[in-house]
């Protein structure tokens, strides 16, 4: 069987296509969106010369991703703006991680002792480095080191946070304020370079059945900081994408009407297939990706290609960019990923 991967896309990128999608307009051609690609497929797509540059220390793994995004047919590349992060104990990793392992903030004393990082100390010149790797017509989209809720859970542990919400809401507010304010500053530092055309606020909020904490608590502690993050992008004249996993049906109106996100990414068929999400929300917010990762893994390449073509036809790509429901980790069959992007890249 012939491979769906035909080598690097020859067409010239045009970042205006992804901006049209984010404005819920129709791009000039089917447009791709992906949060991230795994290192193995980045090496394959970027090619052996690019991989050798990584081995030689000339570029880092994110620079390799910039080159891979170009060859795969994307009009932009996703990068992290700096190495800014919230220090914490290393957690054991397998196919997943525990939400309760190694908490570092459990009470007011540990909150006061925590070495809060300063976003202004981080080095953002990597954005200039990645910009130099872009092909003509490409731009950067900046994402963050997790999100507000994700980092609070990482610092406290999920179970501890649930107890703290009842036992000490004032402490919870201080914690969210400390994390959220630093994210606002991080994005303020990231958004100004001319090579950056948009930003992603990546913060997982839900389980398969509901939000991780109650919608009321989300509105009290989490959403005010996301409103400020979105405002950072909009004040700079640049759109903001929410990447958030889980069942968010109870807070979609908040996402669209209150926080005013321009686009939503991350969908699962077991929660709501992207086709249904587009029909329900596509007139109010851009819909990105959504070809369910489990479907991509379990289906044949031809089945992935067919569904991808059907979604392109169904949406007309107005306010829609093709991609997976989440990302492309190592366990996604490469040929299935290539089948998906082929549906958008034909003729390019």
Approximately how much helix is present in the residues? 40-55%
CATH architecture of the largest domain, please? Alpha-Beta Barrel
Quote the CATH topology of the largest domain. TIM Barrel
CATH top level of the largest domain is: Alpha Beta
Number of helical segments with 4 or more residues: 15
Q: Could you list the spans in which at least 5 consecutive residues all have pLDDT below 50?
A: none
Task: Report the end-to-end length measured between terminal Cα atoms.
Answer: 22 Å
Q: Specify the oligomeric state.
A: single chain
The class by helix and strand makeup works out as: alpha/beta
- Major beta sheet, strand line-up: 1-2-3-4-5-6-7
The figure for the number of domains is 2
> Given the C-alpha coordinates, what overall shape results?
globular
DSSP strand content: 5-15%
Overall pLDDT score: 96
The biggest sheet amounts to: 7 strands, parallel
- Total number of beta strands: 7
Instruction: Please provide the ordered H/E string of secondary-structure elements.
Output: HHHHEHHEHHHEHEHEHEHHEH
Q: Gyration radius, to the nearest Å? A: 20 Å
Walk me through the structure.
The structure is a single chain. The chain has helices at 16-22, 39-46, 48-55, 61-72, 108-113, 126-133, 148-156, 158-167, 169-191, 215-235, 252-258, 274-281, 293-298, 301-315, 334-345; strands at 76-80, 139-143, 196-202, 240-243, 263-265, 286-288, 320-321. It is α/β, with parallel strands linked by helices. The protein has 2 domains: 1-34 and 262-348, no CATH class; 74-87 and 99-247, TIM Barrel. The protein has a 7-stranded parallel beta sheet, sandwiched between helices. The longest helix has 23 residues, at 169-191. The protein starts with 15 loop residues before the first helix and ends with a helix. The relative contact order is 0.15.
